[in-house]
Amino acid sequence: MMFNDFPVQYIEPVYRPPSEAKSFILPVTNGCSWNHCSFCSMYTDVQKKFSVRKESDVLTDIQRAGEQLVGVSRVFLADGDAMTLSFRRLLTVLKALNHAFLELRRIGAYCLPRNVARKSVEELTELKNNGLSILYVGVESGDNEVLTRIKKGETAETTYSALQKIKQAGIKTSVMVLNGLGGQVLSEQHAVNSAKLINRAQPDYLSILVLTFHRGRQRFVEAFGGDFAELDSKELLKEMHLFISELNLNSTVFRSDHISNHLVLKGILGRDKPALLQAIRQALSPECELPTIALRNI
Ligand code: SF4
């Protein structure tokens, strides 16, 4: 990609998944329409208050980007839940992107399960046929008590239904689960029920991130109900071990290589399940020095 006078004016901060590092980031909304998850501070700044960008502004950005940027093969639709747009508006954006970038191979976006509830499989399939190839869904947990306490606004069932619909449309699913999200009180049920949900959904990609408080923990602890006790490094790994041991996946790319992770793991599940579990047991052995820090405040 070549950058001249960049065709998009971003409202910072802008987030995207690590795998979209080389993508052209196109904001179609600002912020997140839900914005209640107690662990998430991505869009809490005043300038990130949720709004849908004017269609004409988005189309102008696409046209200018098509004229100025060379070699764009990937596009990520920002911000937190681009899929909140109506089917018609999404289709208009996708068609414009395909027209502007002849080398375009893949379009991705974050997606809340509720975004999908309002779209049919036929509509999602039409979006797929116009280039929408991967959706990133923050599952966070498959345990309904955890989901309630973090104010996710979703249940294991609503998340499963969304992932099923996305798959039926032929769009790839990349899901995130948050290690440590249930604290000590709900750790076991968080791990077991998250694995149950992931087993049902059989996503294409699965990432584990660690619960991290970027702007302090007070908001999260208050929402959780007061009995939140965070996991230390070894407890986080024990929870991850339980989670992976409960997984029964056919062919899912697995990663725990985010900056928040205390142990970097990569593999294909189920093929690499024994090796991943062995690596965690090794990290938990008395000879292995893990950092004694609990949750990071970064
Ligand atoms: S849905 Fe995603 S972006 Fe929105 S508040 Fe929750 S975690 Fe943050």
UniProtKB/TrEMBL annotation:
SMART domains documented for this protein: Elp3
Cofactor: [4Fe-4S] cluster
Record key words, sorted: Iron, Iron-sulfur, Metal-binding, S-adenosyl-L-methionine
InterPro entries found in the cross-reference section: Aldolase_TIM, BchE-like, Elp3/MiaA/NifB-like_rSAM, rSAM, rSAM_sf
CDD domains, A to Z: Radical_SAM
GO molecular function, one term: metal ion binding
Radical SAM core domain segment(s): 18-250
Protein name (record): Radical SAM protein
Species in which this protein is naturally found: Oceanospirillum linum
Biological classification of the source: Bacteria, Pseudomonadati, Pseudomonadota, Gammaproteobacteria, Oceanospirillales
